[in-house]
Specification:
The complex is a heterodimer of chains A (about 425) and B (about 325).
Chain A (H helix, E strand, L loop, with lengths): L1 H25 L3 H16 L3 E10 L19 H15 L4 E10 L2 H14 L4 E4 L2 H9 L8 E3 L6 H4 L6 E3 L4 H14 L4 E6 L3 H17 L2 E7 L10 H8 L7 E5 L19 E3 L3 E3 L11 H12 L5 H20 L4 H9 L26 E5 L2 E6 L24 H4 L1
Parallel strand pairs in A: 1-2, 1-3, 3-4, 4-5, 6-7, 6-8, 8-9, 9-10
Antiparallel strand pairs in A: 10-11, 11-12
Chain B lengths: L1 H11 L7 E6 L4 E6 L4 E7 L4 E6 L5 E6 L4 E6 L4 E6 L5 E6 L5 E6 L4 E6 L4 E7 L4 E6 L5 E6 L4 E6 L4 E7 L4 E6 L5 E6 L4 E6 L4 E7 L15 E3 L5 E5 L5 E6 L5 E6 L4 E7 L4 E6 L4 E6 L4 E7 L4 E7 L1
Antiparallel strand pairs in B: 1-2, 1-28, 2-3, 4-5, 5-6, 6-7, 8-9, 9-10, 10-11, 12-13, 13-14, 14-15, 16-17, 17-18, 18-19, 20-21, 21-22, 22-23, 24-25, 25-26, 26-27
Classes of the chains: A alpha/beta (about 425), B mainly beta (about 325).
């Protein structure tokens, strides 16, 4: 009943106000109409918010896969953001908040930057970034980008968390260092202390391999060999001959592979010279999400995604979903769509997010990185989740993953 | 009317009579029956897939079972312990509440963001109410005026007017609200937030939060303190709060909201229910697969009973 009354009163107020305003304008007695208008507008529109979120992505930025099977879905990442919008709108309808997603893309980086520039000029909302280091630098340097909220959903480079962190930039994607530590902690728990690294040639491969090395130093393990994958021939029929030769060397407990673009890592399991497990980007993998995760209510999210998209949710989808959920959580609690207000709330200790990982997620206020447990998965199931038991930290064990505050060198951490 | 109901109830619940506790085992597709006097397992009954929420009809003739993966609410005839039929429940029912009128069952359909109202006698759907993402906890007020649903991802209590079956108001609470419990006088609601780590006290008249309870257990990280099940004693003295992976049940002074004690129980404690005239409190411990029995006078755990895999819900028949 009360709801019905409220509706009727609101409707009445709206019509009355409109009439009054029209009359006032006709007689051009603005001095009278202005306070009246404000009075009228406040109860009807005060709570209504529309939040436009951009999803900036480069089409054709990913190298083409070696097997057709590994083709990246066309709506990679975007699908997660879209589900986040649907979830947020279900919540938003009770609060008169409406969320919309706009994909901003370009055939090359220059085109994307131009498109985003014009979006930023006309929209005050937050931007989810699914871009390379180079494009991220260019976007953040735009004059239109100052005082805006950017959430990086896919870029794992440590530089954005260590030297180039900046106000207004958040990361839902875990960094290479976080993934490396998540893996390293598990290997320590298993007492597999001798690591053999096989890495690809791309920048991402090097960054991933460096994260293993950093982790090794942290935990005092030994790297018994490090090889670079240089094959440029198709190994589909010959991996059984080539991979043992490549992985021959001093004894090791585990082979760590760094193949960020999924070009060769899948040749390694079962083909290593010594009968040892493979982990890293292939075999057992540290990833922010995987289709086999069903604990902590995750099955609901997996089902919602699968029903909508006909494919399982992957890491990029999940990180983009998280980005939208973080924004909408901040909007819900602050009742504001202002980027600065939202950013401030997200970085405060008031913010926490339930995200199907068994505990609350928060942002590190010294570099904008989302704290999160990291699942360790094999192709068919969840193996473990780091941080592992026994890795302690004075504040939260989640900060044993990745660069901690004293190691971060950007100005945010100095404040 | 009250003058004769009360003695009748006291007779029925006299401490000499053994209660029977029914525990749903989520991963075994079974119910475990426990004699609460002898504190022994009586028998195990096969039911539908992934049984979670269970609740008795007010006359204890029937037990309603959310068989989540069977997409059904099953009705067990308590006299024979046989499933007699299914109710049209909507998809993936997880928790529910029975209205004081004894025939309107309010079911949270987790996958569909709706609450389904089913008439248990006519076995038809009375209404479907759109709520937030992942509806979970359900409770009906003692006077039958309100039904509250919690939505885990929307983080709200949704207030459903039971006379019109319409959603009329929402209260924003902390992350992942799991369970709601009305006080006996119906004036206050206790609402647990699993990921927020808090219990909110909500005033029914204003639908606003009046107090938030925080928990702190030495040696347990705050992130692992995840309140789920809540039970309030009828005498208004205590509230018991199951703290999930913290493996403890908090004892709260129901008047001052001060946390009095933390009782160590099994692993991942989920739901709670009183037995033996509220002298005992049973807890379902999912990961350790057992039920802890708490003496509510001494506030001590007196026994642990092995049940099936992942015990979830518990309901007690006097």
């Amino acid at each position: 009943m009360t709801a019905l009354y409220k509706k009727i009163i609101a409707k009445l107020a709206k019509t009355l106000c409109l009439r009054a305003a029209k009359r006032c304008c006709k007689r051009s007695r603005l001095f009278l109409s202005l306070p009246l208008l404000m009075l009228c507008l406040s109860p009807v529109h005060a709570n209504e918010l529309t939040i436009n979120i951009a999803y900036a992505t480069q089409t054709s930025s990913k190298p083409s896969p070696s097997l057709a099977l590994f083709k990246t879905p066309e709506n990679n990442g975007v699908a997660g953001a879209e589900l986040g919008i649907v979830d947020s709108n279900t919540t938003g309808k009770f609060l008169k908040q409406h969320y919309a997603l706009q994909v901003v893309d370009g055939a090359d980086s220059a085109e994307l930057i131009e498109a985003l520039k014009s979006w930023l000029a006309t929209n005050p909302g937050p931007v989810i970034l699914d871009v390379s280091d180079k494009v991220m630098s260019a976007i953040l340097a735009l004059p239109e980008a100052s005082n805006r909220l950017f959430i990086n959903a896919t870029n794992k480079s440590d530089r954005w968390r260590v030297t180039q962190c900046q106000t207004g930039l958040l990361h839902t994607a875990p960094s290479y260092a976080m993934l490396g530590d998540a893996l390293g902690q598990f290997l320590m728990a298993r007492r597999w202390r001798e690591w053999f690294i096989v890495e690809g040639n791309s920048e991402a491969d090097k960054a991933m391999a460096n994260a293993y090395v950093r982790s090794s130093k942290r935990f005092g393990t030994e790297i018994t060999g490090r090889r670079t994958w240089t094959f440029d021939t198709d190994l589909r029929r010959t991996s059984q001959q080539e991979v043992p030769a490549l992985t021959q060397g001093e004894d090791y407990d585990v082979v760590l592979v760094a193949d960020a673009d999924n070009l060769f890592g899948f040749y390694l399991p079962y083909n290593t010279y010594l009968p040892r497990p493979v982990a890293g980007t292939h075999g057992m993998k540290a990833a922010s999400w995987h289709r086999s995760i069903e604990q902590w209510g995750a099955l609901q999210l997996q089902n919602r995604f699968l029903d909508t998209n006909g494919r399982p949710m992957n890491e990029d989808d999940y990180n983009a979903w998280l980005a939208v959920r973080a924004v909408s959580e901040a909007v819900t609690r602050t009742k504001s769509a202002n980027s600065a207000t939202l950013y401030q709330y997200l970085m405060s200790d008031k913010f926490d997010l339930a995200a199907f990982k068994g505990r609350k997620l928060t942002f590190r206020n010294w570099n904008g990185q989302l704290r999160q447990p990291i699942p360790l998965v094999q192709p068919e199931s969840l193996v473990s989740q780091s941080p592992q038991q026994g890795f302690l930290h004075p504040n939260t064990d989640l900060d044993t993953l990745g660069y901690d505050k004293p190691e971060v060198r950007c100005s945010m951490a100095q404040e | 009317m009250k003058s004769w109901i009360l003695p009748a109830m006291m007779m029925a619940a006299s401490p000499a009579m053994a209660d029977i506790a029914y525990v749903s085992n989520e991963k075994d597709d079974t119910l475990t029956l426990i004699d609460t006097d002898a504190l022994e397992v009586l028998q195990t009954i096969d039911v539908g897939m992934r049984p979670r929420g269970i609740i008795f009809s007010h006359d204890y003739k029937y037990l309603y079972i959310c068989a989540s993966d069977s997409d059904a609410v099953q009705v067990l005839d308590v006299a024979t312990n046989k499933i007699i039929h299914n109710l049209p429940s909507g998809e993936d029912p997880e928790q529910f509440a029975l209205h004081p009128n004894n025939h309107h069952l309010y079911i949270a359909n987790e996958d569909d963001a709706v609450v389904t109202v089913v008439d248990t006698e006519k076995r038809d759907v009375v209404a479907q109410i759109n709520v937030g993402v992942e509806p979970e906890g359900m409770a009906a007020s003692p006077d039958g005026k309100w039904v509250i649903n919690t939505s885990e991802t929307t983080n709200m209590l949704h207030w459903i007017d039971a006379s019109t079956q319409e959603l009329v108001d929402n209260t924003l609470v902390d992350q992942r609200p799991r369970h709601v419990e009305f006080t006996k006088d119906g004036k206050t609601v206790w609402s647990s937030s699993e990921i927020g780590g808090t219990v909110s006290i909500v005033d029914v008249a204003s639908k606003a939060i009046t107090h938030t309870i925080n928990f702190k257990i030495p040696g347990v990280h705050r992130d692992k303190i995840q309140p789920v099940g809540v039970k309030l004693t009828d005498n208004g003295k205590y509230a018991f709060v199951a703290l999930g992976p913290a493996n403890h049940v908090a004892v709260v002074d129901a008047k001052t909201y001060e946390v009095l004690d933390y009782l160590l129980v099994g692993r991942r404690v989920w739901m709670l229910e009183f037995a033996n005239d509220q002298k005992l409190l049973l807890t379902t411990n999912g990961v350790s697969g057992d039920v802890s029995v708490i003496d509510t006078d001494d506030l001590k755990v007196i026994k642990t009973l092995k049940v099936g895999r992942y015990p979830w819900g518990v309901a007690v028949k006097p």
